[in-house]
Amino acid sequence: MPSRELQLIVNADDFGQSDDTVEATIECFEAGALTSASVIPGMPATERAVEFARAHAELGFGVHLTLCAEPLWRPVS
């Protein structure tokens, strides 16, 4: 029977939502607890999250699309 290799992906959501989420996500990356993070556009700390992502191309990053219209969670477009 062929061996099967499993891979666990641990993704942090809402990377950029606040300074606290950015700090916690960076700490988790540094501890080796995360595989990737989803950057959320248009939030108070998005710029910090993007700066970190650009400086760490070896890590995995995606985008968290926001399609709702609450005051804080406003669509980007």
Question: What would your notes on this structure say?
Answer:
By secondary structure, this protein is α/β, with parallel strands linked by helices. The chain has 2 helices and 3 strands, in the order E-H-E-H-E. A 3-stranded parallel sheet has the order 1-2-3, covered by helices on one side. Strand 2, helix 2 and strand 3 form a beta-alpha-beta unit. The chain is globular, with a radius of gyration of 14 Å. It starts with 10 loop residues before the first strand and ends in a 14-residue tail after the last strand. The mean pLDDT is 89.
Topology of helices and strands:
Layout: E1 11-15, H1 19-30, E2 36-39, H2 46-55, E3 60-63
Task: Report low-confidence residues grouped into runs of 5 or more.
Answer: none
CA radius of gyration? 14 Å
Q: For the residues shown, what is the average pLDDT?
A: 89
Kindly state the number of beta strands: 3
Give the strand content. 15-25%
Strand order of the largest sheet: 1-2-3
Number of helical regions? 2
Q: What are the secondary-structure elements, in order, as H or E?
A: EHEHE
Shape summary: globular
Helix content: 25-40%
How far is the N terminus from the C terminus?
A: 51 Å
By helix and strand content, what is the structural category? alpha/beta
Main sheet summary: 3 strands, parallel
